[in-house]
Design brief:
By secondary structure, this protein is an alpha/beta fold. The protein has a single domain, classed as Rossmann fold. The protein has 11 helices and 7 strands. A hairpin with a 5-residue loop joins strand 6 and strand 7. The longest helix has 16 residues. Bound molecules: S-adenosylmethionine. S-adenosylmethionine binds next to helix 5, strand 2 and helix 9.
Length: 249
């Protein structure tokens, strides 16, 4: 991948200007939902990136880009709820996660990732219940489903398809892809997901990869995937994640 993709992240002035533009494009109802997601810690994704995700989904819907939606790495479901809220009723949103403690990083993910993983001594279920203690299910996937529906509305419930397990086993896509959010932190699942999703993306589709500027393994996976060429895509890193839009097949 060209160094230009990474250089964008330091352009704070341009980034702040674009944040204001993005917020202006979203209606108050969407901004209220983003506030709720942030205040209740329903997503690990910071508010600024949630605004960016919402803007990208709205753009894909406005252009009526055909295909499925996907999120790989859902955790508590905050970002997925926002995506589900903004997508059309006739879309399908595929959601991939182990729905338990995050799998361990590899050496390529670096010592910081290993240190964080070793510190995660609280089970995934305990973490999620801390935030949603009024919910009763013992099943983390069911808790995530409830959070997504609480954000997106019951009407979107039939649009959700859950895939529990390692993405290396579960992520097989045959349909065209209109939008995907890849938020898996580590090298191997990120590369595996890019390989499954990117060849299915259609012109006008948007794929957002979180953590490219935070986890070295994620950055290395993006670099490895796009090492064969980037000509069919435009890249935007100004919001703190990498937005990849397909411009030609
Ligand atoms: C940063 S969290 C996702 C945050 C989420 N998008 C949100 O809105 O809060 C990363 C998620 O990726 C999942 N994950 C990481 N590696 C995975 C793998 N190999 N297969 C399936 N899920 C994985 C973890 O279980 C975790 O829930």
């Amino acid at each position: 991948m060209s160094k230009g993709l990474f250089r964008l992240k330091n352009n704070h002035r341009q980034s702040n200007d674009l944040d204001r533009v993005n917020i202006a494009l979203l209606d108050d109802d969407v901004l209220d939902r983003i506030d709720k997601i942030s205040l209740k810690s329903l997503s690990f994704v910071p508010k600024r990136r949630l605004v960016s995700i919402a803007t990208a989904v709205a753009r894909v819907e406005k252009k009526r880009v055909p295909g499925i939606f996907a999120e790989a790495g859902c955790a508590r479901g905050g970002a997925a709820g926002l995506i589900a809220h903004l997508m059309r009723q006739d879309r399908t949103l595929h959601l991939y996660d182990v729905f338990e403690k995050i799998p361990p990083p590899d050496a390529v993910d670096g010592e910081r990732a290993r240190a964080l993983f070793d510190d995660l001594d609280t089970a995934y279920e305990d973490g999620i219940k801390k935030y949603m203690d009024h919910m009763t299910s013992e099943d983390p996937l069911e808790l995530t489903r409830q959070i997504i529906v609480s954000i997106a509305g019951e009407a979107k419930s039939p649009c959700l398809r859950f895939h529990r397990g390692l993405v290396q086993d579960t992520l097989k896509i045959d349909d065209p892809v209109a939008f995907a959010h890849i938020d898996l932190d580590w090298y191997d699942p990120t590369l595996c997901t890019l390989k499954a999703i990117m060849p299915r993306t259609v012109v006008g589709s948007v794929v957002i990869i979180d953590d490219v500027y935070f986890w070295p393994g994620c950055a290395a996976a993006v670099e490895a995937y796009f090492s064969d060429g980037t000509d069919d895509f435009v890249f935007d890193g100004v919001h703190g994640h990498l937005i990849v839009e397909r411009i030609r097949m």
